[in-house]
Design brief:
The protein has 377 residues and is an alpha/beta fold. Helix content is 27%, strand content 21%. The strands form six sheets. A five-stranded parallel beta sheet has the order 8-17-9-10-13. A four-stranded parallel beta sheet has the order 2-1-6-19, with helices on one face. It is globular, with a radius of gyration of 22 Å.
Length: 377
């Protein structure tokens, strides 16, 4: 099938890129292995999730979130926005179409994309001039290797599959990972009556949503370091010294840290108070697992009924992209740093890998469409 552009992935990055291409009247097709767009939001995000940033930083190109919507919108409202966005810009992904391989044909100067139609089992082939990798930073959950984990007799899942703490009432649950997902899941578990513990392995910043929102507005006018000083001072006043609870702040401020490494501050949803009042226990790094007992690096041990790994995600682009070595590293992320990460070689593009959330996705989509428009003409 001939298309000028093949986009792999119908998450926010994929549909935003397609929308921008449609505005330039450039023929494209979005291939999605699931049966819906935004599958990570619709199928693999926990029920209590709200967007962590203010809505002005979470909009896709050329369509604002509704004015009447709250500043921090819910998962349900964002899913509705994604559906309306695709309809508005005539983005119609081809669902249940899993890309198996893609390589660049130097003779025809096109990409050769092979996909499997999940509904019919048939193989489909595409020969686009341009290929957009939009499978995202969070394509597959990562569970680290833990000695003895295979002997654990309870439930072991990645946060990718967590929905609600309702079924964990009165159970002993360990959450491994203290990012936004880990802290929110721990709060949700405790709220539903689980005997909750969380593993804190590294220093991190904990802020309120309002503090980060203020910081992102101020950084448009003031240096990162100065804004970090302001919002960290506010956070210290809000939360106090948390070092006695095993929570230590990094040396770099939250905005500097985000810009340098992509690591986000944790936005508190009430977890800190539950830690302070003893509803959530904090442990250090895990050493090993022996049946139902988890052993920690400091020598402590505790028995649990379930372990939930909120230990991040990885890209899966390297599994099917055969000629991406010039563009992607061994982890499936662009070798180029921000703001040039979106453009590869031979008509290859990466959308949604800026480590800057939905704002980064919007920038990628606009840049990719504008660049393809120049070559297309």
């Amino acid at each position: 099938m001939d298309r000028e552009v093949v986009i792999v992935g119908a998450g926010p990055a994929g549909i935003a890129t397609a929308a921008c291409l449609n505005l330039h009247s450039i023929p494209n097709i979005v291939l999605e292995k699931e049966d819906c767009l935004g599958s990570l939001w619709k199928k693999n995000s926990y029920d209590c999730l709200n967007l962590h940033l203010g809505k002005r930083f979470c909009q896709l190109p050329y369509l604002a979130l509704p004015q009447h919507a709250p500043n921090f919108i819910s998962k349900a409202d964002f899913i509705k926005y994604l559906d309306e966005y695709a309809e508005n810009f005539r983005v119609t992904p081809k669902y249940q179409t899993c890309v198996k391989s893609a390589f660049f044909d130097k003779e025809s100067m096109t990409w050769h994309v092979v996909a499997c139609n999940g509904a019919t089992g048939e193989t489909e082939e595409y020969s686009p001039r341009f290929l957009v990798v939009a499978t995202g930073e969070n394509a597959e959950g990562v569970i680290p290797e833990v000695p003895g984990l295979h002997t654990f007799q309870g439930e072991v899942i990645h946060s990718y599959f967590y929905k609600s703490g309702e079924k964990y009432n009165n159970k002993r649950v360990l959450v491994v990972g203290c990012g936004n997902s880990g802290m929110e899941i721990a709060h949700n578990l405790a709220t539903h009556g689980a005997k909750t513990s969380i593993v804190v392995r590294n220093p991190f910043h904990i802020m309120t949503k309002e503090q980060i929102f203020l910081g992102m507005k101020l950084v448009q006018y003031l240096p990162f370091e100065l804004v970090d000083t302001i919002i960290v001072t506010m956070a210290r006043f809000t939360f106090g010294d948390l070092s006695n609870y095993g929570i230590v702040r990094p040396k770099d401020g939250p905005l500097v840290l985000k810009a340098r490494s992509g690591r986000s501050a944790v936005l508190d949803v009430g977890t800190v108070q539950k830690i302070k009042n003893g509803e959530i226990k904090v442990y250090g790094p895990v050493s090993s697992v022996e049946e139902n007992n988890v052993l920690f690096m400091d020598g402590k041990s505790e028995a649990f009924d379930a372990i939930i790994f909120a230990t991040g995600y990885k890209s899966t682009a390297n599994k099917w992209l055969e000629d991406g070595n010039e563009t992607l590293d061994e982890d499936g992320f662009p070798k180029k740093g921000f703001p040039n990460q979106w453009k590869g070689s031979n008509g290859l593009y990466c959308s949604g890998f800026a480590r800057r959330g939905l704002a980064g996705i919007s920038m990628d989509a606009i840049s990719i469409a504008d660049d393809i428009k120049k070559a297309y003409k």
